Amino acid sequence: MGFDDTLPKTISKEEQIKVHIDKYNEWNWFEDQGYYGAVIKGDGWPNWGGAGWCGGAISSYTLMKLGGQLEYERAVRTLDFAIKKSRSKWLVYSQCR
Hints:
This protein is mainly alpha-helical. It has helices spanning 13-27, 56-66, 69-96, and strands spanning 29-30, 35-36. The protein contains three helices and two strands; from the N terminus they run H-E-E-H-H. The longest helix has 28 residues, at 69-96. It is elongated and about 55 Å long. Mean pLDDT is 80; it is low at 92-97.
């Protein structure tokens, strides 16, 4: 049909990991609360809910495994925040309904 169907150029796996880590540290880390959130700083959305499975918590494992000590410590803080904030009853209910 005349469309360009060549594969786009991609960056290496190592560069992709660095982009992900840098983005989360700069835009998704909320120091005042101590967690990685789903929303980015300054977008106007409430951010504490973003520490749950849709954002910070789901990215925490990746950051723990692929990042350095800083990302590991922040990921642990994120999981701690999400579990304490959600209370175990809500967490189980939300994942099982």
